[in-house]
Write a structure and sequence with these properties.
19 strands; 61% strand; mainly beta; single chain
């Protein structure tokens, strides 16, 4: 137990009193009250002077009691209130939305998750691919660039379609998606160009109405 909200349970613990370093091994479970995160890992190193916590090996946890995390080798900077990993990570929420990221950083004070090479699958199985993006966990909204979206086939009332959308910058929440410089089609994927597309500098997808709106569109 520390005096600033860190609790570590482990099978073995070694504490260096001179360097103020704690090494915990064997079924380690760590609670960080400041960053609202719970971590499970085979090994945790806590540098008390720098206020930095490292995990080694396969790491799982819970962020803000909402997001389940699976990754490897995370770094918790308690002074900056940041949690980061350069390993492939999976983050799931209670509504079955799934984030797959090649690396991520969680900014606890801003309630933001940043990442790159992101695949986001929402609860209705639409797939979003971003080059990089950030997720505002206070309103469950994702914003990123260089986006490609594969809607589930029955999204527009025809299960034989393969509706998809590409664009420059996009933002999405549970009800709406907005894409700039977008191209949309529902045609099946095939060699060469699809039979038709709609291009627009601004595309909005209303998931509730199952409707897409375009500004200054070209068909």
């Amino acid at each position: 137990l520390s005096d600033d909200g860190v609790k570590i349970n482990a099978e073995n613990v070694k504490y260096d009193k001179i360097n103020l370093t704690l090494v915990a091994e064997g079924k380690v479970k760590m609670f960080d009250e400041k960053n609202q995160i719970i971590i499970n890992a085979p090994k945790v190193i806590y540098y008390k002077k720098e206020d930095i916590i490292l995990t080694e090996g396969k790491t799982s946890g819970v962020i803000e009691s909402i997001y389940n995390l699976e990754t490897d080798n995370i770094v918790i900077d308690r002074k900056k209130m940041e949690v980061a990993s350069e390993s492939k990570s999976i983050i799931k929420d209670k509504e079955n939305n799934i984030l797959e990221l090649m690396e991520f950083k969680y900014l606890a004070n801003k309630k933001l998750i940043k990442g790159r090479e992101i695949k986001f699958i929402n609860k209705i199985k639409d797939e979003f691919f971003f080059e990089d993006a950030f997720i505002d966990i206070s309103n469950n909204e994702i914003t990123g660039r260089n986006i490609s979206v594969n809607f589930h086939n029955a999204a527009f009332n025809n299960p034989n379609n393969e509706p998809r959308l590409k664009g420059n910058i996009a933002s999405s929440n549970k009800d709406f998606a907005k894409v700039s410089k977008g191209v949309f089609t529902t045609c099946k994927k095939r060699d060469g160009c699809p039979p038709w597309t709609i291009k627009s500098p601004e595309i909005k997808h209303d998931r509730i109405k199952k409707q897409i709106e375009y500004k200054h569109a070209i068909l």
